[in-house]
Write a structure and sequence with these properties.
The complex is a heterodimer of chains A (471) and B (190). Chain A has helices at residues 6-17, 24-29, 36-39, 44-49, 122-130, 133-137, 160-165, 205-209, 223-242, 251-268, 280-286, 297-310, 331-354, 430-443, 451-454, 461-464; strands at residues 65-70, 107-108, 115-116, 139-145, 177-178, 200-201, 316-320, 358-364, 367-369, 379-381, 386-392, 402-403, 406-407, 410-411. Chain A has 471 residues and is of the alpha/beta class. In chain A, the strands form four sheets. Chain A has an eight-stranded mixed β-sheet, with helices on both faces. Chain A has a two-stranded antiparallel sheet with strand order 2-3. A two-stranded antiparallel sheet of chain A has the order 9-10. In chain B, helix 3 packs antiparallel against helix 4 (79-102), helix 4 (79-102) packs across helix 7 and helix 5 runs parallel beside helix 7 (169-183). The chains are: A alpha/beta (471), B mainly alpha (190).
């Protein structure tokens, strides 16, 4: 569990600010490409007989995955209980910097991980305004205690790409979606970056609906002509690469190029049917109707939830900005927490109505602190960070891993200094936190044994159980 | 003789790493890359002589640019990118074709053998071949291979068969072929 050696510390510091290298340029930059030409040189036999590396891909996942990216460093430990080494209920000596006092505030444990009751947690209040009692029954949370840089896009802790790696892909739009034109679709970077993981940027509803259509002048073509066009550019490309004009290609590369051009046709033959304004449940949950603008924020958030939960798209990142609310007042924080709670509640309630499971990660860049036990947030704080995992199962109450006699609702822990303990597997590493989220995502599918294969050189097998909350 | 053999072996030993590298490069196509998001507007501008700052082109690019290759790695050749580059290049093509066909032959960027009044079904073979090889020169900076030419000629015959037999089909057929040059492998790679 401990990672206190200087060597580990340097490695963790490095991981905290870098995604894993995936491109040739990144490998070169890290000195990993030197001499690689010989080390990786294929034999003639391997070129002729080797199957494509992608042929034996990961198992598919039927559990939709969402990331709620709270931009700016929200007060998550001001809403969810952070405890010591004995778990969330192992109370710290004081909570005066975290905005509430669990010895004087009722703990609301309906979602497993205790939350601040008595109207203190506005995230809880927001969720309860939207969630039906039936949906509440099968929703559970778990926390991960770790540090993260404040107000910074340098914490690679979005598990969006890890969920894709674990097989969470859409039936129509295979990839993920996001509301920001960034490599992660949100503010926080992906733990595992790479072109195939980068989300589709949804700027308005039309852009999502047209994701499987040709744009520009080609949109005027009839559907058969568009299909014909895709076949044509595939044939033309094959002719170019096979005649070897200007370059030579390996068998895998020839296959890859042909597959990609072939997928254009598949894409054009499918149609995304996402419009939350026309879906009664979503329209009611998000307060939108046929007259709402297609670029309205509620419409876009609803569209991403609809796409991910219905399985038409891969996982989605919903960014909620304005979470850097340490302006010396309580009001700004309460308003934003309420909005976050409502957004989480809407997604879970929609999953309940669709009778679909939903796994989600609530992440934020760093944290904030208050003083004197009030909720007037006054500044950023690296140690006050936390990631929340949520799991809704429509058919049964989610189960926690049991350690001794207690259910594990908290991974890692806080210290009496009211900050995340750095010495745990995830304590110092936002990136390993994302991998811990992925471990839990696999665990609920009974696939934890695939972790080492899917995510090698991340969390050691011996540490894996210690980062799993959901059984 | 022994001394000569030793010399040959020494030379061979020195050349082996080079040979291995050459084999590796030739077998993997090391160095293959795609035009990046930053290069694409300039590339299409130089191929079509259409300004990428035109409003409809700029707007399209603003929304679609995240799908374009960032580093140019082959892994960035995704179906989303291919759909986007097809649409993006079609806007350059549409503008170039409209402008060219409105100009006298001598002032055109391409299409100098196209008579706007003659439907594509009645084009001479030399007209068709010149248009296609001009597109190859402009978008690929090279001529057509025989395999490419065969596919293009066959596709041309099939497409014009389905179009109305009048002059309005000129723009239609050109707007079909032009973006295909930009979106096919020879257009997106560098």
């Amino acid at each position: 569990m401990k990672n206190r050696s200087p060597k580990n510390r340097r490695y963790l510091n490095y991981l905290n600010s870098h995604s894993r290298p995936t491109t040739r340029r990144e490998f070169i930059a890290r000195g990993l490409m030197a001499g690689g030409g010989f080390a990786l040189a294929p034999t003639l036999g391997s070129l002729l007989y080797a199957e494509s590396a992608t042929a034996a891909g990961p198992s598919s996942s039927q559990i939709p995955f969402l990331v709620f990216d709270l931009v700016g460093g929200a007060a998550l430990p001001g809403n969810f209980l952070a405890g010591g080494k004995g778990g969330a209920l192992d109370l710290l000596k004081s909570y005066d910097m975290l905005g509430w006092n669990p010895t004087k505030t009722a703990l609301d444990e309906r979602f497993g991980l205790p939350m601040a009751g008595d109207g203190v947690s506005k995230m809880l209040e927001g969720m309860l305004t939207v969630l039906s009692p039936e949906a509440q029954k099968n929703l559970r949370f778990a926390s991960l205690c770790h540090i993260a840089q404040t107000d910074s896009p340098t914490n690679p802790m979005s598990a969006l790409s890890l969920a894709m790696r674990a097989g969470c892909k859409g039936t129509v739009l295979e990839g993920s979606c996001g509301l920001l034109p960034t490599a992660s679709g949100g503010f926080t970077p992906l733990a595992l970056d790479g072109p195939s993981y980068r989300p589709f940027f949804v700027s308005n509803l039309e852009s999502l609906q047209a994701a499987t259509d040709l744009g520009g002048r080609l949109r005027q073509f009839s559907t058969p002509l568009k299909i014909r066009f895709s076949d044509f550019i595939r044939d033309l490309s094959n002719a170019s690469v096979r005649s070897g004009a200007g370059a030579s290609f390996s068998i895998d590369q020839l296959r890859q190029i042909d597959e990609r051009y072939g997928k254009v046709k598949t894409l054009l033959q499918t149609k995304i049917e996402i419009d939350p304004r026309a879906e009664a449940d979503l329209a009611a949950l998000y307060g939108v109707n046929a007259g709402t603008s297609s670029s309205d924020q509620a419409v876009l958030r609803a569209a991403l939830v609809q796409g991910a939960v219905s399985g038409q798209t891969g996982p989605a990142a919903i960014s909620i900005d304005g979470c850097d609310y340490h302006d010396g007042t309580q009001q700004s924080g309460d308003e934003k927490d309420l909005e976050v709670g409502i957004e989480i509640g809407r997604a879970v309630e929609f999953a309940y109505r669709m009778q679909k499971p939903l796994f989600f990660q609530v992440l934020t860049d760093g944290g904030i602190y208050a003083s004197d036990g009030n909720r007037m947030w006054i500044g950023d704080r690296v140690e006050s960070c936390m990631t929340i995992m949520g799991y809704f199962n429509p058919t049964a109450e989610p189960k926690y891993r049991v350690e001794g006699s207690r259910s594990v609702t908290q991974i890692g822990n806080y210290t009496d200094g009211q900050g995340a303990e750095r010495g745990t597997v995830i304590g110092e590493s936002p990136m390993l936190t994302a991998y811990a989220v992925a471990a839990n995502y696999l665990s609920i599918q009974g696939r934890l044994n695939e972790f080492a294969t899917l995510f090698p050189s991340t969390i050691a097998a011996a540490d894996l159980d210690s980062v799993v909350a959901f059984a | 003789m022994n001394r000569l053999n030793r010399g040959v072996f020494k030379i061979m030993a020195k050349m082996m790493p080079m040979c291995a590298l050459a084999l590796f490069i030739s077998s993997t196509g090391f160095g293959l890359s795609l035009k990046t998001v930053l290069e694409t507007p300039y590339y299409l501008n130089s191929a079509t002589n259409v300004d990428f700052r035109r409003a409809e082109i700029k707007d399209f690019f603003a929304f679609e640019r995240t799908k374009f290759p960032g580093t140019g790695a082959l892994d960035e050749l995704t179906e989303s990118y291919l759909v986007s580059i097809s649409g993006y290049s079609s806007l350059f093509c549409q503008r170039m074709i409209a402008v060219d066909l409105s100009l006298p032959v001598g002032k055109r960027w391409l299409h100098q053998t196209v008579d706007g009044a003659t439907p594509p079904q009645k084009w001479a073979e030399s007209t068709r071949d010149t248009v296609l090889s001009d597109y190859a020169s402009s978008f690929w900076n090279r001529g057509l291979s025989q395999a490419e030419s065969d596919i293009l000629v066959a596709e041309f015959a099939d497409v014009v068969r389905e179009l109305p037999n009048d002059a309005s089909s000129n723009e239609a057929v050109l707007n079909y072929f032009c973006p295909a040059f930009a979106a096919s492998w020879a257009g997106v790679s560098k």
